[in-house]
Design brief:
The complex is a heterodimer of chains A (115) and B (110). Chain A is mostly beta strands and 115 residues long. Chain A has no helices and eleven strands. In chain A, strands 2, 4, 5, 6, 9, 10 and 11 form a seven-stranded mixed β-sheet that branches. A four-stranded antiparallel β-sheet of chain A has the order 1-3-8-7, with no helix packed on it. The model of chain A has no long low-confidence stretch (mean pLDDT 97). By secondary structure, chain B is mainly beta. Classes of the chains: A mainly beta (115), B mainly beta (110). The interface between A and B is medium-sized, with 19 and 21 residues.
């Protein structure tokens, strides 16, 4: 059974930092293209960042460029999202997504931004 | 405003069929696979169609996807009350170098 388990969400102050993690099991992690997708309260889905299979290529939505960093550790079957200089617009549920022939989604981790 | 355009709402009665459209561009739907997701309130999106028209294991064959040019559609036949959810389309956009989503269509089963 494929499982993607996100963690690391919580309350962060504006301007603060947070690192999200995603632990994968049931897939050959190193062969999957990985993404973070978020959903603000009451809103639709928004792609945040992608990383290719060996971590050599990364892509970001314009609104997080220079503030967020996606990375992966294939030996640990883990995906990360380092979030810096967080703003209220970053408050959302963050989902981890693994893509190959098909794709798998985690259950999400909530990020709340408040002082 | 979403890169992919979906109607905000759709409806049908039990047993009927309904189609949800998703309109994009040559750099998005026109050049890439389309994915469809079903989401219930308070839960994670569930993949129901991938690579335009493939269904993951466990998804009923009442759900089908198609793509033509820069548009895609999700068809749901024999509507059931449990199909009431929000449906999102998604694809990659070569111009934006990123994944793009539709704004979502809330399906109501009357």
């Amino acid at each position: 059974e494929v499982q993607l388990v996100e963690s690391g969400g919580g309350l962060v102050q504006p301007g603060g930092s947070l690192t999200l993690s995603c632990a994968a099991s049931g897939i050959t992690f190193g062969t999957h293209y990985m993404s973070w997708v978020r959903q603000a309260p009451g809103k639709g889905l928004e792609w945040v960042a992608d990383i290719n299979q060996d971590g050599s290529d990364t892509y970001y939505v314009d609104s997080v460029k220079g503030r967020f960093l996606i990375s992966r550790d294939n030996a640990e079957n883990s995906l990360y999202l380092q979030m810096n200089d967080v703003t209220g617009d970053d408050a959302a549920v963050y989902y981890c997504v693994a893509s190959s022939w098909t794709e798998y989604w985690g259950q999400g981790t909530q990020v709340t931004v408040s002082s | 405003q979403s890169v992919l355009t979906q109607p905000p709402s759709a409806s049908g009665t039990p047993g009927q069929g309904v189609t949800i459209s998703c309109s994009g561009s040559s750099s998005s739907i026109g050049s890439n696979y389309v994915y469809w997701f079903q989401q219930f309130p308070g839960t994670a999106p569930k993949l129901i169609i991938y690579r335009n028209n493939w269904r993951p294991s466990g998804v009923p064959d009442r759900f089908s996807g198609s793509k033509s040019g820069t548009s895609a559609s999700l068809a749901i036949s024999e509507l059931r009350s449990e199909d009431e959810a929000v449906y999102y389309c998604a694809t990659w956009d070569d111009s934006l170098s990123g994944r793009v989503f539709g704004g979502g269509t809330k399906l109501t089963v009357l």
